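Final report, Chapter 2: Outcomes

The project's central promise was a pipeline that accepts a single protein chain and returns its three-dimensional structure in a standardized token representation, suitable for archiving and comparison. That pipeline is now operational. To close this chapter, we reproduce one record exactly as it appears in the project archive, with the input sequence first and the structure output second.
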Amino acid sequence: MKNNLVAFAAGVVFAVGLGLSGMTQPAKVLGFLDVAGNWDPSLAFVMMGAIGVHFVFARRALVARAPLFAPRFHFPEATKIDGRLLAGAAIFGAGWGLGGFCPGPALVALISLAPPVLVFVFAMCVAMLAWELLSSPAERQGDVEAARSS
């Protein structure tokens, strides 16, 4: 129960931060991505703040024996940059650039019930369902080597 409360509190803090920073507003995000036009650099400061916070806590995690509410830390095991990673990053970037949303801010923006948000979240859910239906169990668990050999 304690883990769920901590996760919920972290989600609320994240959602509030996304809302206050303007990340839930596609026009703000698209203004940040428009480096050749009317560029809005404000989200760069949001990203720098997030990277700074992550850096501090990631360094702490590397030297800590265990997290406060779990038996161990779960660090990424895959470190290889391959075609699947690059394709996924390109699809994510294209979706972010075309729609002005990425998954977290889109979920926070659902509270607005704005049609573009509803369409984006619906399409995102359809894509996630398609991945679940079309991928192997090894792929869903991130075991690329096992997925390739099956």
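Archive annotation: Residues 122 and 148 are 30 Å apart (CA to CA).
This record, like all others produced under the grant, will remain available to the consortium after the project formally closes.
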